[in-house]
Write a structure and sequence with these properties.
The protein has 90 residues and is α+β, with helices and mostly antiparallel strands. The protein has a single domain, classed as 2-Layer Sandwich (YaeB-like fold), CATH 3.30.2310.20. 26% of the residues lie in helices and 33% in strands. It contains two helices and five strands. The protein has a five-stranded mixed β-sheet with strand order 1-5-4-3-2. The longest helix is centred in the middle third of the chain and has 14 residues. The radius of gyration is 13 Å and the shape is globular.
Length: 90
């Protein structure tokens, strides 16, 4: 996929609250990955979520970041970050 261009990154407040509750080292690692989405939303350990139109999952160890890519507007909307568990994708 071509990901050239300047992407606008939108992060929900829910994601920020999640990052405040987890260990600082993990939160910093996740923030780096989220910021890197703005340069290329299709790089790294990603997977398109089944049943969703433009929703992708970025995996970082035991954490997952879910985001929507709106290509025509060059917007990346990060709407959820979670620790991987048996109920993560339900």
């Amino acid at each position: 996929m071509n990901s050239s261009g300047n992407w606008v990154l939108q992060v929900d407040p829910v994601v920020c609250k999640f990052l405040e509750r987890i260990p600082r080292r993990d939160a910093e690692r996740i923030l780096i990955v989220i910021n890197n989405l703005a340069s290329d939303p299709f790089y790294g350990d990603i997977q398109k979520m089944g049943g969703e139109k433009n929703v992708w999952r970025r995996r970082m160890g035991s954490y997952r970041v879910l985001y929507e890519v709106v290509s025509r507007e060059l917007v990346i909307h990060v709407f959820r970050a979670e620790r991987r568990a048996s109920k993560t994708y339900k």
